[in-house]
Known about the structure:
With 204 residues, the chain is mainly beta.
Amino acid sequence: MHHQNSVWEQTELEGLVLAENGLSEVSEQIGRLKRLRMLDLGHNKLTRLPESLADIEGLSDFLYLHDNRLAALPLSLGKLTKLRYLNISENIFEVFPECVSSMSSLIELRVSDNCLPSLPDSIGRLSGLRELHLRNNKLTSLPETLGMLLELRQIDLRGNSLTHLPAGIAALPRLEKLDLRWVETLIPPVWIRDLEARGCLIYR
């Protein structure tokens, strides 16, 4: 992997794609790439990420980490407050990574195909979030703070075991799409009709 060592010298890089490389780890030296706006580490075999990823504070366009073997993210990644798009789908998260709640610029968050039984109240801090993708987890309920995400357009909850939805969802002013397919356990709340009446598409 000689070429990978020389990558860390290219400190002017703004985008780096290391997808589908069979990587089981990423060097701490990645933190030297201070100008990165886009980083794709998807489709690898990563079980952990370097703390130094947090040093790329300008990372703004996207961070792709999907299809790896991650169960946790470094707490320091909460420093990525310019990041707009995060994909951590197809990993093995059983606990929602707390650092994500600090990524205050997120517009789109993809956490599908993990093992999450719940989401933390702190998700309500992602005030700019427009899309939340949670398909195929083990969610039985969602935090009431979801009602604080006033920019939300889409929520994908397919294939979860939800028994309850927070009523705050009914008041989300911009919600366009709520996907509840393959959620066998939910008695649809009355307010779903109100959402439909004002033009929100509800798939079930």
